[in-house]
Amino acid sequence: MSLTASITAPARIIRYSAANALADMRHMYTWKTWTFGWLGRMLAQVTFFAFFGHVIGSADQTRYLLVGNAVMTCVIESMMVIVSTTWERRVGTLTLLSAAPAPLSWVFIGRSLQWPVSGTLTSLAALFGLGPAFGVHWRAGQILPVTALVVLTAATTYCFGLFVAAVAFNADGARNIISNATYLLMMAVCGVQVPTSYWPDWVRVVAQAIPLTQTLKAIRSVSGGTGPALVPACWAVLLGVGWLVAASWMFQLMARRGRRTGSMGTGA
Amino acid sequence: MRIFLTGFRFQLRVAWGSPDTLQICVTAPLFTLVFMAIAEHAERPDLAPFAIVSPTLMSLWTLALFIAGELIGDERRSGTLEALIAVPARLSTLVIGRICAVTTLGLLSFAEAWLVAGLVFDRWLAVRHPLPFVLCLVVTALAMAATATIFSPLFILMPSARTVQNTLTYPFYLLSGVLIPVAMLPFWLRPASHLIFLSWSGDLLRDSLAAPAPHDVAARLAAVLALGAVSHLIGMALLHRVLRRVRRLGTLSHS
Amino acid sequence: MSAIEIRALCRDYGVGRAGDKRTQALSDVDLTVELGEVRGLVGPNGAGKTTLCKILSTVLEATSGSAQVLGHDAATDAATVRRHIGIVFGGDRGLYGRLNARQNLRFWAAMYGLHGAPLRLRVDELLERLGLADRAGDRVDTFSRGMKQRLHLARGLVGDPRVLLLDEPTVGMDPVAARDFRSLVGEMRAEGRTVLITTHDMAEAEAVCDLVTMIDRGRVLLTDTPSAIGEVVPRHERVVAGAVPEQTRQALTALPGVVSVEQEPSGRLRVETADSSVTGTVLRLLVEAGVSDLSTQRPNLEDAYLHLIGDRGMAVG
């Protein structure tokens, strides 16, 4: 395969698979239910945690919690890839997909793209819409870098989520639990609610490998005007690519195992 | 009472090991971890009761919303609802028995939250006022079950309500003082909060874990019960409508 | 080179909680399908047909033995095999209900490496050919079962496969749709494609297949032309009767054209006859003997096996 073909072929499959993601999104939400249902719920979640800063009685804490939890919303949504990846098995297409020449991972990359997109919008609404109410104000020059970093957070978290989805590929019944448990753990250790320095060393090391830790560091740098945002952002890109490679390798492994055990879904 | 117990035992068997119950068992400790970390990092060990009470109430609410909310829907999907209605036992009693089982399971999450605070953060919380505390938990579970009776028929009568099922979590936690005392909410929200039984439960549970003796215990328990009773009446009215519809149309499949 | 060449193929599954007990879905299967042939794979549910299709389509590995498609091994050269096969499963599953028919096909066309104008052309051509062109923009959720089945077939053809595996393709189809489907299989043959079609419907197998292979409990029973099998099967009929006096039973056994007389576990007597005129005689005898508990049955596929094996004394396996 030529170099261009090796890029355009996956891109094409991802694009057609993303049509499925879009169709799912349209089925689930209208503009109204997304805005007043989903977005409202997520903003309530951000407010819920930011209010805890009020209880503590510290304006700094409140701002810290608001930024962390606002960014967290796109993570929560991107991690839904763990759930939607198992939908292929449910509609009975998994057997057909594994009998087709193209690798499974390309399909799955496109299949759940609705989440990081919707998640990015949610995060931006929380940061820029809700932020000022909790004392998080933005200067015009901060908006573009923060937006870019939110997109990066959603994208790299999606890659990480794909890896978890691949690991949980055969655990159909536990998909919701795995998705929730993963994001709650990330919420605890990645610097969302408390700085990573709060945790023991080994937790901190693990947290460094999760893209969210890096992008959040970058976003806090931009919002507070402290420290360089570029270094953690580059780390996030590297980690994202790393997790994506790991995910596609894991999908291959799972497909091989599925062929041996006969668990690649029942088509009939 | 026998029908109630039958429903209770049946649902315990169904819910035990079901993914939803398991979900609560996994998420409650993780929420505690998050809340405790915030409190400990802010050097506010006095907030530990908040960190333990809110995951408990959140678990109860989630269970009520998802398991209990789907209860009648599940029967309808499996085609057993019509058969259940045809038996002489009162369906409402059976439903309440089943929902009570669900909320009882939800109470386990308090034990989990308490253990996490102790094991991870070495905050072994003493229940300073056990009687009000236990009474409040029981009354809360009952009120939760009573409120859940609204969801089951509601999701059948208004299928569109199901699409916002997921939406009924955090806005509600926020409004009902699950994490933050109602007194700290903006004043214009407070009247609405006082209409939700969870706000009374949360405050009383937190007070029973704190040093000073909680005041007006009986009145506050009565408030939880009264609000639960109102929810129950609404729930029964809705259930009655569902049953009437089944009897009239012979099926629920088009609702 | 044959289109499909299967040698000594076995597949075990682990059953039980720990998967420690083994059950054999396929045992020692040999099968050769020539290029351009339409081969039926007939057997009851659980016979191993779907397992065989899955191994050929590279989604399941064999425990032992080999399966080749166009000379390529399905296990070791799966990538090549996938490019040459198309698979179609019966039933409603396997389509993206929230996408329209065209989106479904375009997705699968991309999966088979098509792009640009050839992709669009191929998809439109298939939609036209399968009579889906005027509903191409509608969500598949809104399709009738027959239309979904046609879309399935279009999906199977999207990669222009030389070998088509059709697993119970007519399950749940109404008779008109099933007839249309049969003529489509005819077109496949005319185009020189090799088709392996599994079914538990003997009539369907007879209508479309060059050769039929019977399979049961994971073993191949026989391979023959439908007409050769048809010569044997339709003639046999069966009468089942309760409380038959011993004297009558002996008379029945002695009757020319009666193939067998056996006691069922329920105590009723089962009389197999060579054709309907003999069945008439048997029924008259029974009625004259005062037997009122009577029924006649056409043999099902399982009976066909029994007859074929019994009549020809063939080695099983």
Question: Can you give a write-up of this model?
Answer:
The complex is a heterotrimer of chains A (268), B (255) and C (317). Chain A is an all-alpha fold and 268 residues long. Chain A has one domain (3-261). Helices cover 78% and strands 0% of the residues of chain A. In chain A, helix 2 (31-56) crosses helix 8 (114-130), helix 3 (59-78) runs antiparallel to helix 10 and helix 12 (211-224) runs antiparallel to helix 13. The mean pLDDT of chain A is 91. Chain B has one domain (2-249). The mean pLDDT of chain B is 83. Chain C folds into two domains: 4-231, Rossmann fold (3-Layer(aba) Sandwich); 237-298, 2-Layer Sandwich (Alpha-Beta Plaits). Chain C has helices at 49-56, 78-84, 101-111, 116-129, 145-157, 175-190, 202-208, 226-232, 246-254, 276-288, 301-312; strands at residues 4-15, 21-33, 38-42, 64-69, 72-73, 85-89, 163-167, 194-199, 211-216, 219-224, 237-241, 258-263, 269-273, 294-297. Chain C is elongated and about 80 Å long. Residues 309-317 of chain C have low confidence and may be disordered. Classes of the chains: A mainly alpha (268), B mainly alpha (255), C alpha/beta (317). At the A-C interface, helix 1, helix 6 and helix 13 of A face helix 2, strand 6 and helix 3 of C.
The biggest sheet of chain B amounts to: none
Biggest sheet record of chain C? 6 strands, mixed
* Beta-strand percentage range of chain B: under 5%
Count of extended strands of chain B: 0
Largest interface: A-C, 33 and 38 residues
- What is the domain tally of chain B? 1
Sequence stretches where pLDDT stays below 50 over 5 or more residues of chain B: none
Approximate helicity band of chain C: 25-40%
| SS element count, helices of chain B | 11
Helix-strand makeup class of chain B = mainly alpha
CATH level-4 homologous superfamily of the largest domain in chain C: P-loop containing nucleotide triphosphate hydrolases
**Rg from alpha-carbon coordinates of chain C:** 23 Å
Subcellular location (chain B): Membrane
Transmembrane segments (chain B): 21-39, 51-72, 84-111, 131-158, 170-189, 217-239
InterPro entries (chain B): ABC2_TM (IPR013525), Nod_factor_ABC_transporter (IPR051784)
Membrane topology (chain B): Multi-pass membrane protein
